[in-house]
């Protein structure tokens, strides 16, 4: 694995794990400031480093990865604004969407790179991939709604 790719993957995995801790904090009514900072920093770095892959592979126009990176950075900018303004529900929603984007890519890359999963989805667009991504979306959406309704979490 190329060193740059390894760094990008490590940033992404740290972002995903810290994002799960942040979502736990939302549900438990705990701020967990260091985890929020780690999640935001790693997720921003994941999106930014993703833009450098065309330098290694050749620019092929606006790919789904580039578009997702742009949308992710916009979501993260709104999350940072919400954090600074104390907009708790917006912050929870934006962090949950950012976490979903991280998990969405994790699922797609897992089916592409892990041989046991690749056997189930050699093209990457088989129904099993969409089912896994849809399940992740539903779980994170439900957790976000539950967290927003609890009102125990405050910025």
Per-chain topology:
Layout: H1 3-28, H2 33-50, H3 53-57, H4 64-85, H5 88-113, H6 115-118, H7 127-150
Give structural notes:
The N and C termini lie far apart (40 Å). The protein has helices at 3-28, 33-50, 53-57, 64-85, 88-113, 115-118, 127-150. It has one domain (3-150). The longest helix has 26 residues, at 3-28. It has 7 helices and no strands. With 155 residues, the chain is mostly helical. It is globular. 81% of the residues lie in helices and 0% in strands.
Count of DSSP H/I helices: 7
What radius of gyration results from the CA coordinates? 16 Å
Calculate the terminal CA-CA distance, rounded to whole Å. 40 Å
Low-confidence stretches: none
Please tell me the total number of domains. 1
- The string of secondary-structure elements, in order, is HHHHHHH
Q: Report strand %.
A: under 5%
Which structural class best describes the helix and strand composition? Answer: mainly alpha
Quote the average pLDDT.
93
The overall strand count is 0
């Amino acid at each position: 694995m190329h060193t740059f790719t390894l760094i990008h993957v490590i940033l992404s995995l740290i972002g995903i794990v810290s994002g799960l801790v942040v979502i736990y904090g939302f549900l438990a009514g705990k701020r967990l400031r260091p985890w929020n900072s780690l999640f935001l920093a790693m997720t921003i770095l994941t999106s930014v480093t993703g833009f450098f892959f065309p330098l290694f592979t050749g620019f092929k126009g606006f790919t789904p990865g580039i578009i997702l990176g742009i949308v992710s950075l916009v979501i993260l900018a709104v999350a940072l604004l919400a954090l600074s303004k104390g907009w708790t529900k917006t912050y929870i929603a934006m962090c949950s969407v950012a976490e979903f984007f991280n998990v969405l890519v994790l699922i797609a890359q897992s089916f592409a790179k892990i041989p046991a999963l690749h056997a189930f989805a050699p093209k990457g667009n088989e129904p099993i991939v969409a089912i896994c991504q849809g399940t992740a979306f539903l779980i994170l959406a439900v957790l976000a709604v539950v967290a927003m309704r609890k009102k125990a979490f405050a910025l």
